[in-house]
Specification:
single chain, Cobalt-precorrin-4 Transmethylase, domain 1, 3 domains, 4-stranded parallel β-sheet, 10 helices, flat, binds iron/sulfur cluster
């Protein structure tokens, strides 16, 4: 078995910056992280061990007990910011600038008198943060939920981690069903997500299966796995190396590796190491039956393959 790594994968700058800010906080016990800083159970555990108070994403309406509140990279609405300020909380804001850009785009469309159609996952914290500041909006996760809207003026924005191909399909459907409306579209999918999706599309052409590393509730990780399935390539979604199950790889000669934007480098490295061990034992068992494959792209050379 050979392993090919996606050209772009793993932690984005927005998540890295947020983590760096938490590293600089001197008294973590005085800070409540307002929802999950990243959708990554290992990071959540590390923050817990460091002494941070963490409120779950469904408990954010409560009054935090600590004097300071850390806004995650997913951002919050201005309404929520005002609520926290009004109860005397000091805010430590790690909102990703590209999430902020999506907020600004939605607000601008609303200011132009447009009904905002946000393409994204209903209930996701980033989506909640955007729509809470809007008077009139619809959240659309797929083509089925698109409809004819009452307004003659529509504005489309999207969650930063939407797959561009799905976004295009939904946008087309909105246009078809609202052909008389004046529609303005602002593409707010973030560049790190786009680059990872492009790398993924390149990867699926070259592999038999893909291992996707990331948290179970990480939207962009799940999207990467969905992208594989859409291209007829089986995907194994794992959160850590221990979940890499040897039996799953039976019959695959070339396996791709990618990871969501909230995945730590150390977690990817551990999964890579586990895959290399599998590749190594696989090659040891089959070296007489299969000649070495030509090198394509960025590839992990196992020790066995060099022998
Ligand atoms: S996925 Fe994109 S928008 Fe979200 S934190 Fe990372 S860079 Fe920012």
């Amino acid at each position: 078995m050979r392993i090919i790594r996606a050209e772009e994968m793993g932690m984005c700058f927005g998540v890295r910056d947020a983590l760096q800010i938490t590293d600089q906080i001197i008294e973590p016990s005085q800070v409540t992280i307002h929802g999950e800083l990243v959708h990554n159970p290992r990071v959540i555990h590390q923050l817990d061990a460091a002494g941070f108070v963490q409120s779950s994403e469904t408990e954010r309406a409560a009054v935090p007990e600590t004097p300071a509140v850390l806004i995650t990279a997913h951002g919050v609405s201005d309404r929520e910011r005002r609520r926290l300020n009004s109860i005397g909380k000091q805010l430590i804001d790690t909102t990703c600038p590209l999430v902020r850009r999506a907020h600004d785009a939605a607000m601008q469309l609303a200011a132009e008198g447009r009904h905002v159609v946000l393409v994204g996952k209903p209930g996701h914290v980033e989506v909640q943060g955007i729509v809470e500041d809007l008077e009139s909006y619809h959240v659309v996760p797929d083509i089925k939920t698109v409809k004819k809207y009452e307004s003659e003026f529509l504005g489309i924005v999207c969650q930063t981690t939407m797959p561009s191909c799905l976004l295009e399909e939904i946008r087309e459907e909105i246009t078809t069903q609202n052909h008389e409306a004046d529609i303005k579209f602002v593409d707010t999918v973030c560049h790190p997500t786009k680059r990872r999706q492009t790398a993924m599309l390149d990867l699926v052409k070259r592999v038999d299966a893909v291992v996707v590393v990331g948290g179970r509730n990480s939207n962009n990780t799940r999207r990467l796995a969905e992208l594989c399935h859409q291209h007829g390539v089986p995907a194994l979604h794992v959160t850590c190396a221990e979940e890499v199950n040897e039996q799953w790889f039976a019959g695959f000669d070339v396996v791709g590796l990618t990871a969501g934007t909230s995945t730590l480098d150390s977690t990817i490295d551990a999964v890579q190491e586990r895959l290399e061990k599998l590749a190594c034992s696989d090659m040891a068992a089959n070296c007489s039956a299969h000649p070495p494959m030509p090198v394509v792209g960025q590839q992990f050379q196992s020790e066995c393959s060099e022998n």
